[in-house]
Structures are given as C-alpha cells and as structure tokens.
Write a structure and sequence with these properties.
90 residues; mainly beta; Tumour Suppressor Smad4; 5-stranded mixed β-sheet; 4-stranded antiparallel β-sheet; 1 helix; 46% strand
Length: 90
C-alpha cells in the first residue's frame, strides 16, 4: 500500500473524510514524503490520540507507522485505513 508524496487533511471536510461528530472539519494533517508519514493535530476540538494497549495517549505531532491505531475525537482507525482512504481520494 503506497501513498503519493502529498499533504492530506483528515476530518469531516478533509481529503481523508471521517464522518463522526467528534471529529473536527479539519482535524489533522498527514504529510507523506518518501514513504514516511508525519501527522499533526490541527488544534482540533476533541484531540488526536495514539492508541497504545487500549489506552488513548494524547498525540500532537510526530511520525506514524502503518501498524498504529489512532483516535480522532472518538473515531478510531488504523493508519492502514487512512492510507486506503487517501488512495481513494487521489
């Protein structure tokens, strides 16, 4: 699964759309460059979290991997799912 080198906005009105009332219109930004992915929370209302052992760990910005699980507000998804949605939006 590969993504184009590009900046994607994640949220209710983003390139990668998440349809959840706890997700902001422009919740987070995903920058893909040379197979690396860097995620930044865009000061969302309900926050972005990294799921670790069933617990939500606050996540402001940093590199992410395909096998990680994230929470955007209450919406939980894997990085793999984001990549699949990004491929559909391209």
């Amino acid at each position: 699964m590969t993504m184009q080198n590009k900046t994607y906005v994640i949220g209710r009105r983003g390139h990668i759309q998440l349809f959840d009332k706890t997700t902001s219109a422009r919740h987070a930004e995903l920058v893909v460059l040379d197979k690396q992915m860097y995620l930044t929370d865009l000061d969302s209302t309900n926050g972005t979290y990294l799921m670790e052992q069933g617990k939500r760990m606050p996540f402001k910005e940093g590199y992410i991997e395909l096998d990680q699980t994230l929470s955007f507000g209450e919406h939980i998804c894997t990085v793999r799912e984001l990549v699949a949605r990004a491929a559909l939006s391209s």
